[in-house]
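Our consortium's second objective concerns turning raw sequence data into structural hypotheses that experimental partners can test. To show how far this objective has progressed, the report includes one record in full. It was chosen at random from the queue rather than selected for favorable results. The single chain below, 150 residues long, was entered without modification.
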Amino acid sequence: MSDRIEKRIELKAPVSRVWRALTDYREFGEWFRVKIEGPFKPGEVSRGQVTYPGYEHLKWEAIVQKMEPERLFSFTWHPAGVDPKKDYSKETPTLVEFKLEKTANGTLLVVVESGFDKIPADRRLEAFRMNEGGWETQMKNIESYVARKP
């Protein structure tokens, strides 16, 4: 098992459009399927409620790390497989980075989630497996979102 998940997709949308879909908390929430309480701000906690069918019992919580306009958006969080009754605050969170690059046809979006080697061994494999599939789905979600809402 690797320490990181990396997904790439070329979106047929300008970098500015993809950036807005990533960093406007309402737009992010729409394609990511989470109702976020307020705007993303570096250094601050982002909270909300997951709206993805079957996962509505989960809370969203991430700490925004960087927002480098039209280039990099990142946050840390506790990866999937989380039991809502368990306190994970002592665990080291993983880092999620969305990197944007202009291409001839639009935007290359690269999502990297790293730090799985710091997840406790008893849940590391399951967290990795769930997020691997989750990022596959989220790449399709943002692709259809920016195509539907240019």
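The partners drew two points from this record. Strands lie at 4-11, 34-36, 45-50, 59-68, 72-77, 94-103, 106-114. The domain at 4-24+65-148 is CATH 3.30.530.20 (Alpha-D-Glucose-1,6-Bisphosphate; Chain A, domain 4). Both points have been shared with the crystallography group to help prioritize constructs.
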